[in-house]
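ok so dumb question maybe but i'm new to this and my supervisor (M.) told me to 'just get the structure for Tetratricopeptide repeat protein' and walked off. so i did the thing. is this what she meant?? sequence i used:
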Amino acid sequence: MKFPLSFLLLVSIIVISGQAQSFENQLEQEIAVAMPQLEQPEPPQLLSQEPQKTYHINNQELSANPALIEIFINQAIDQHRAELLPELLAMYQVYSQADPILIQYAQGIYAQSQGNYQQAITNYRQLLADYPDLIKVRFKLAQFLFEDKQFTAAKDQFRKLNAEYLPKEIHFRIGQYLHTIEKQNELKIRFGLSYLNDNNINNASSVKYIYLDQYQFVKDPRYLPQKGQGVSYNLNVSKLFNLIDHHYLYLENHTYGKYYWNNKDYSETENRTYLGYQYQNAHYRFALLPLYQKHWYANKQYSQGYGIRLEGDKWLSNQWQLVTALELSKTSYKRSERIKYSQLYSGSLLYIANAKRLLYGGADILVERSNINLEQSNKYMLRLGWQQEWKYGLSSNLHIQLGLRKFKDKDNLKQIIRQDKEMRINLTLWKRDWHWFNFTPKLQYRYQRINSNIPEFYSYDKSQFQLLLEKTF
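this is what came out, is it supposed to look like this??
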């Protein structure tokens, strides 16, 4: 689940008064908004079941026959009809000869079907404490622990089951679960590389002339759009350490950068590290992540910062997921006494329409405060996304972002309060069965437009096609 967090910092360019253009006006960075993480551990596929017989009987006849109720309870469990269990158990429990093991087992099945994993797991642990030889109960307990993301406890139960003499197909399924659990504990590495051919690497306005009162000034060529060819790179390394039950230690390091071989003064690298606590179960995830970040520009250290990030995800249903994030950070600059304080409030809603289509939308607020009044601003963003699997192995991902950034103080030159309107469109296409040295090639179109009320300094638009190579280790 994660994206790099860096902040857009745009300050006034006062060319004619001799002030240097801020490096940050040239950086094109992404904000780590709350985006859904779709890569959930999937349980192994269940073995196919034989067709079940159909019974026709009314409640009065059924309630008079406890042996038949037992059959119906087992049938409801085997056919995954947990919604029938409360009524069947109500009829069954009144009989003195009712099997207490079956009752507690069925109650656990129903609790799990309602998303109450804690109750289901408690039921089965109590059963195993009294009857440790109940293999079926132990297997269900291991499954529920897995689904509730208690991977260490699930692994322990599956290993105990592996020591039993069971049918080969059951051992095969246990092996699948253990393999999936081991993959959750592995170091996850993602790497991406793309070719860059950018006609505006400094994100500058192409307006050559500046008008003040009735005078015309020529902008310094250094502050016009600069060209560059090179590569962008993206390396993410993360690992989860299951401490106990739902509690995890989370470690992540993300490195992002651009290298222009014909314009190295605009090369940049950013590194961000998280180390903190994560709680997760079948329904939601919460993380408290202290962070540290560094930024290099033109091969020199530019800034460093630290902060805290809170993340919360919750599955509202099988199709809807809510993802939120709050981040507070402080950034200082190597060659300046400037200090920036940032607050990010972000939320996204994911809708999985079916196995081939998902939609998401989100809203974000970025508040930036500084000891330099001119650089203080509020940014408001809306995001929409659509990911689709098409025929012939084709996939697409469309992401649209609209933003409005309002500054708090007047621009030194124009003496008006700066306001920028932003639009970003990213369209990525790839073929799911195409691989090159285990890398997935993707074609991406990117469009970005900034419409500022101080256009001679801050307005620009650019578009480009990129060839991406991505791989997950």
